[in-house]
């Protein structure tokens, strides 16, 4: 097994460093040129529309993933709204701006995992505590990692009989208001699944639980002609690859990759090292998007790797290499402030998410002009 793994990694790395074949137009090389960020707050909407017009569109960004979660005035489930949330009018400003610039908007609501952050429960478990996969693990007054409970983020129980009635209401509403043909369910960093505290999930196969939830969400969306996007970390074997517990799975959910529908789009995020895992997803039959964050050199490598993988693939495999998507993990307002001020990081210098965005799209433009 070790020799097979070493050969596989060497093969993937050889693809990364192989020379480019004759360049095609960038549109055919990178079907997805993406940008993922939190949806703006109410007082940031007009400024974000300007950012779409003046920064995303000129770089030919064609896919915008907006993390909405509970930042919308849901009518179907008003109890889940944030206290200050986007109105339908606010959302339509974003939709119009995206259409004007031929950008596909994909709204995101975190499903399954990420139902808490630091010391706070997210709205779903705050309002519906019965959905909690780990009800006996209390939220700390001051969060730290690691901790005795293994608490990173809470999860909802995928087998609770009422949970999907609630979450699908907000999923359907957010798809409708954004006029979207794709939806991002998150589903990354799920550490709590099949937990011993859960009377429904305890003792069940974690890969089957994870695959069951992905499939249930996918089937619900497919009935409406909507595509499902998820992060890919839970589908990579963190132990065998050595990638570890964050960008891959150490709790045996990775086997779900052979149990979920092949039309799910995988967002393959790696932030400090450009691990060449995109071919793994493509060989399993999935469309895959490589996703950097705050390290410019990693983003540039991921762009070049994606093009090389596609160039050197069979016709069957080539179209599965969908493209790249810059991920932003601060609020839209904070990001725009730092972006326009060209801030440096005290520890990381120009290794910032805003500089990574610029460098990644500079590289795409350079390759498209060759």
UniProtKB/TrEMBL annotation:
Coiled-coil parts of chain: none
All copies of domain Glycoside hydrolase family 20 catalytic, residue ranges: 83-293
EC numbers, comma separated: 3.2.1.52
Keyword rRNA-binding (UniProt): no
Secreted is among the record's keywords: no
Similarity comment: Belongs to the glycosyl hydrolase 20 family.
The protein's name in its UniProt record: beta-N-acetylhexosaminidase
Organism listed in the record: Rhodohalobacter sulfatireducens
């Amino acid at each position: 097994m070790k020799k097979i793994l070493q050969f596989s990694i060497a093969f993937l790395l050889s693809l990364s460093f192989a020379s480019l074949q004759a360049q095609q137009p960038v549109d055919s090389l990178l079907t997805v040129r993406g940008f993922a960020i939190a949806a703006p707050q109410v007082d940031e909407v007009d400024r974000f529309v300007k950012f779409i017009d003046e920064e995303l569109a000129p770089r030919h960004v064609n896919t915008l993933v907006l993390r909405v979660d509970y930042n919308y005035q849901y009518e179907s489930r008003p109890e889940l709204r944030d206290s200050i949330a986007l109105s339908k009018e606010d959302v339509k400003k974003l939709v119009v701006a995206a259409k004007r610039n031929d950008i596909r908007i994909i709204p995101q609501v975190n499903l399954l995992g990420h139902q808490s952050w630091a010391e706070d429960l997210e709205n779903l478990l705050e309002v519906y505590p019965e959905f909690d996969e780990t009800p006996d693990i209390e939220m700390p007054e001051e969060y730290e990692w690691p901790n005795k409970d293994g608490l990173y983020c809470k999860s909802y129980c995928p087998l609770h009989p009422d949970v999907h009635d609630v979450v699908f209401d907000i999923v359907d509403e957010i798809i409708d208001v954004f006029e979207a043909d794709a939806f991002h369910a998150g589903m990354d960093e799920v550490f709590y699944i099949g937990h011993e505290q859960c009377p429904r999930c305890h003792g069940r196969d974690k890969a089957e639980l994870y695959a069951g939830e992905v499939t249930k969400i996918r089937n619900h969306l497919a009935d409406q002609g909507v595509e499902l996007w998820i992060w890919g970390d839970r589908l990579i074997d963190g132990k065998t690859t050595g990638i570890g517990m964050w960008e891959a799975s150490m709790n045996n959910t990775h086997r779900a990759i052979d149990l979920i529908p092949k039309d799910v789009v995988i967002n393959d995020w790696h932030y400090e090292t450009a691990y060449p895992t995109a071919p793994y997803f493509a060989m399993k039959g999935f469309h895959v998007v490589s996703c950097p964050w705050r390290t410019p050199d990693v983003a540039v490598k991921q762009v070049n790797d994606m093009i090389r993988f596609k160039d050197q693939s069979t016709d069957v495999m080539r179209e599965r290499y969908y493209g790249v998507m810059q991920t932003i993990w601060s609020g839209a307002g904070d990001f725009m402030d730092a972006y326009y001020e060209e801030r440096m990081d005290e520890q990381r210098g120009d290794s910032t998410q805003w500089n990574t965005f610029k460098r990644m799209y500079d590289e795409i433009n350079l390759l498209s002009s060759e």
